[in-house]
Design brief:
Blueprint: H1 2-14, H2 21-28, H3 33-49, H4 53-132, E1 135-137, E2 143-145
Helix pairs in contact: 1-2, 1-3, 2-3
Length: 148
Amino acid sequence: MKERVFTACNQLTKQGVKPTLVRVRNELGGGSFSTISPFFRQWKEDRMTHPDPDSNVIDLLNEIATINQKTTLLICKALNNHYHNAKKNQGEAQATLQMKIAKAEVIINQLRMELEYVYREKAVLEKMVSKRGKSCAGKNGYALSING
């Protein structure tokens, strides 16, 4: 039984699976925990005192794979947060620009109305001047000319 338990543990390790009592029993196709447990414990102790270089490599590979998975998850979360923050900031900037555009349009309309008023006033003044004549005599006898 000892050889079967050791073989099952070694096979699981080579597959990159950490041996446990349940996994060893499944690998054996059955058996009682009380029978398997002492041999399993002995296998673990032997492994601690005489580690298998291949199992260390497999352990390292599994640990690297786990670290890579965690790193990938953290990077994805960071990218997702960055995306949502950028999208929020873009929305706020767009709203601010829309408000500034609306204010600018109001000011432009006011300036257009003032310009129309100035043009109307100019037209009225030009009519008044044309009625009085194109020139007026000044105090010193010089003629003043008003050009539109």
